[in-house]
Amino acid sequence: MGISCDSIPDSLIEWLLKQQIFWVATAAMTGHVNVSPKSTSGCFHIADKNKVWYEDLTGSGIETIAHLREPGNGRITILFHALEGAPRILRMWGTGVVYEFGTPEYDAFIPPEKRKAGSRAAIVINVHKVATACGFGVPLYKFQSHRTSLERLWDSFETFDRSSASPSTDLAVQSLSKDSEKVGPHPKGIKAWWTTENLSSLDGLPGLQHAHQTYAVPTSAFNRSAPDKYGRMVRLAEEVGDNDAERITQCTNGKENVGVEWKDKSNNVAGDEKTKAGRHQQLVKGWNESLKVLGAFSLGVLITIAYFRLVTALPFRST
User: Fold this and answer.
1) What is the spatial distance between Cα 219 and Cα 81, in angstroms, rounded to a whole number?
2) Over the range 70-86, which residues count as b (16 or more CB within 10 Å of their CB) and which as e?
3) Which residues sit opposite 75 in a β-bridge?
4) In what helix (H) or strand (E) does residue 186 lie, and over which residues does it extend?
5) Which pLDDT tens digit goes with each residue over 19-33?
6) What is d(CA 228, CA 300) in angstroms, rounded to the nearest whole number?
7) How far apart are CA 224 and CA 148, in angstroms?
């Protein structure tokens, strides 16, 4: 039902590149196991039969990068599964290397004109084992679209990084020389987020090492004028107050969330009230329909009673 080999079969490369989602699993040597979904268009790449890489976008954690960098670790597994068409599961086992934003290695994999908003690293995996399985237990789903929420959010952060760059700085993503004027990160920019959220893992392992300190200016291919897809953020980085900038977000350990509110346009600040109002309208509509039916039935009964009374009141004539 499945195959096992030391490299990616040629017959499966086209199938791999068509998939819209994959999963990345890593683990600390002693500590947490992490599994992350990856689902941004065009982020997965096959360099050859034993080397793949993907563009890692910013998130609230840094587990994958921290695990790959842990001394003696570097283990990583990638899982693909078919949600449409014939069933199939494919796993890749390997060791990963991290190239952070602002390094020459990162630029070689991800040039500025192709960079996604929020991109913080290129994760390169040296694959040593590939195996497929039947996938009969995976349900069927119909793919609609990739969400634009994540890139739109990070692009709003990166806008501040670009605005705080030196006027003489080329807006292309490139490292500046040590002799260049150092420009500190904007408190509302993505480098500030990296500094507060992405420097260590849940187990205290080191995360990002360079991206938050590089002089490189983050630009991307993201089109802000493009239509939103499934969940536009209603509170973007430019709407975060000055007091919030000191702590980009505090969403763990029961602390108050003072950062970006992760709410869809259809579920904004007044979302709960709108939901209640919508339910009330549906209830009223249901009652109106019921009253119409009841009224029609009652009218029919009254007409029937009046008819029989009229018939009984008329004199009976025999022929």
Assistant:
1) 32
2) beebbbbbbbbbbeeee
3) 95
4) none
5) 999 999 999 999 999
6) 52
7) 10
